Every structure is written in C-alpha cells, then in structure tokens.
Amino acid sequence: MKKIWLVFAVLFLFAAVAFTQFRAVSYESLTIADSAKAITASTLSLVLAHGQCSGRLETAQIRFRVDGTDPTSAEGILLNVGEFITIRGLSNLLAFRAIRTNTTSGVLKIHCYQ
Fold first, then answer.
1. Contact 31, 104 (CB under 8 A)
2. In what order do the strands lie in the sheet with 62-65?
3. What is the distance between the alpha carbons of residues 106 and 22, in angstroms, rounded to a whole number?
4. pTM over 0.85
5. Domain 22-113 part of CATH 1.20.59.10
C-alpha cells in the first residue's frame, strides 16, 4: 500500500513541475532607435502577471530600464550585442524601455512566456 502512495506522490510532483513550465505565447523583433522603445501591447497581451520575456540583442548596444523611466544613451543598464536579457513580471514588462547608445539601432529579438 505504501508503494502505491509513493507512486502517486511521485506522479503528482512530476505533474506539478510539468505544468509550471513556461509556454511561449508571443515573439517580437524590437528595433531600438534614438527614442525610448517599449515592448508592444500586442506582444504582452497574452503574458500573465507572472510571465516573462527573454531575448538576445543583435546589431548595436542599447541601454534599458524597467522602472517606468525612459533611459538615455548614457543612463540605464547597458546591454551589449550578443547578450541576453530576461524580464520577469508583467509590471516590469510594461515598464521596460530601451534606447540605442550611438547612431546604430539595436535589434532585440524576444519571446514572451506565460
């Protein structure tokens, strides 16, 4: 009898872990130019409150902030070409803003998950 309960417990834990995995719900290629850019509402429309977006920067360096304030070319967190970014939580995703640091626009390709 104890073995049966152990099997059920293991199966339950496996199912709980399997259902908590993130599922990709949207994709966007953001061109980060000389004015602050946000993730579009249509990209975030399927992301739940505990969701996240992850992506990789291509082309050129950018700066970003997630506190609702627009970054500048000299102020904000620096992201270099080839680096990855993950933003968690809908409030942070809605507050995300990015701007390029020089004359070449960066391209940030992201997947969003719920």
1. no
2. 77-79, 62-65, 97-100
3. 27
4. no
5. no
